Amino acid sequence: MKKPAKDEFAALRLDNQLCFPLYAASRLVIKLYKPFLDRHGLTYTQYIAMMALWEKDDVAVSELGERLFLDSGTLTPLLKKLEASGFIRRERDAADERTVRIQLTGQGKKLQKAMVDVPRQMASCVHIERDDAGNLHELLHDLIRNLSRPSRCSEES
Amino acid sequence: MKKPAKDEFAALRLDNQLCFPLYAASRLVIKLYKPFLDRHGLTYTQYIAMMALWEKDDVAVSELGERLFLDSGTLTPLLKKLEASGFIRRERDAADERTVRIQLTGQGKKLQKAMVDVPRQMASCVHIERDDAGNLHELLHDLIRNLSRPSRCSEES
DNA sequence: TACAATTAAATTGAATACAATTTAATTGTA
DNA sequence: TACAATTAAATTGTATTCAATTTAATTGTA
């Protein structure tokens, strides 16, 4: 004789999720980048790797991975492609042969100047209020800070 | 004699992007889902496909794709796996043989009851203020609405 | 009604993601 | 100093994503 509430499964509706819009928006924005990145021969992941290197050159694969939240399983093949494209060099650290250091080539540095307008071009596609962009930015960074910590869950499975 | 502004490349810094935190947060949350989904034998993408089907059963692949922003290239192999797991059936529509309709099996329907606590369990891991979650939710939905429209960019390249 | 245009899935190929394992180098310590 | 433990990349295997192409079915129209 159970009388289920109308919203017994409300929490399982896509529109009530936080993760789904995050996932959908992320993929939609990345798709929007494609024509701008294609011109320069980069994928989106390669682009953020280059951005990280423009900010700080000569870093270990692991340090790049911490910045981008990616591991060597993703980065190793990606960095080999960026090396094959001539944008970076990969060199074992002489002081610690376990470490591979990533360095920008001249061509990799020139790429930054060539791509300096990409963020503005993208912004012209997205149409978001400055305040909304600021709020979204802050909320996402809070969430990432939150998620980057170990944080134990009360799983009680 | 050029005197570049100190922030000539500020727009290319990772911390000034909207897309990067979107992409990072999305992957971090999906990673957090993994232990909860593993117990039920689902990946994250399979989970949102099941959520869409729990809301509306007996839909075409294309309709499911519109809901999830995924195309047949992603969905076809994913749905074959869900079928192999016994959660759905895939059947050609008798009235239009081009269309494949997706239907929940009894096992697929039972899975909803088994997973009804997953959102609450996840919420206990994320620690986000109710207001922040609401704001983030609204901002993301606005962004998705914005991105789903054709919207022409002033590329001027 | 032939048949070109369109549509829906499926397929193909390239590039991620990521868990788990392996390899090689370094570090800590008995 | 041997050598177990640790660390950093690389590798392996599974599962997406997505653009582009292909296949098969349907629709519109001359």
Can you tag this structure with a few keywords?
homodimer, 157 residues, mainly alpha, three-stranded antiparallel beta sheet, 7 helices, 3 strands
What do these coordinates show?
The structure is a homodimer of 157-residue chains. In chain A, a hairpin with a 7-residue loop joins β2 and β3 (100-104). The first copy, chain A, contains seven helices and three strands; from the N terminus they run ααβααββααα. Chain A is mainly alpha-helical and 157 residues long. In chain A, strands 1-3-2 form a three-stranded antiparallel β-sheet. Chain A has helices at 19-38, 44-55, 61-68, 72-84, 106-114, 118-126, 130-148, and strands at residues 59-60, 88-92, 100-104. The mean pLDDT of chain A is 93. Helices cover 57% and strands 8% of the residues of chain A. The radius of gyration of chain A is 20 Å and the shape is globular. At the A-B interface, α1, α2, α6 and α7 of A face α1, α2, α6 and α7 of B. Chain A binds a DNA duplex (30 and 30 nucleotides) through α1, α2 and α4.
Spell out the blueprint of helices and strands.
2 copies of one chain form a homodimer.
Chain A: H1 19-38, H2 44-55, E1 59-60, H3 61-68, H4 72-84, E2 88-92, E3 100-104, H5 106-114, H6 118-126, H7 130-148
Antiparallel strand pairs in A: 1-3, 2-3
The first copy, chain A, binds a DNA duplex (30 and 30 nucleotides) through α1, α2 and α4.
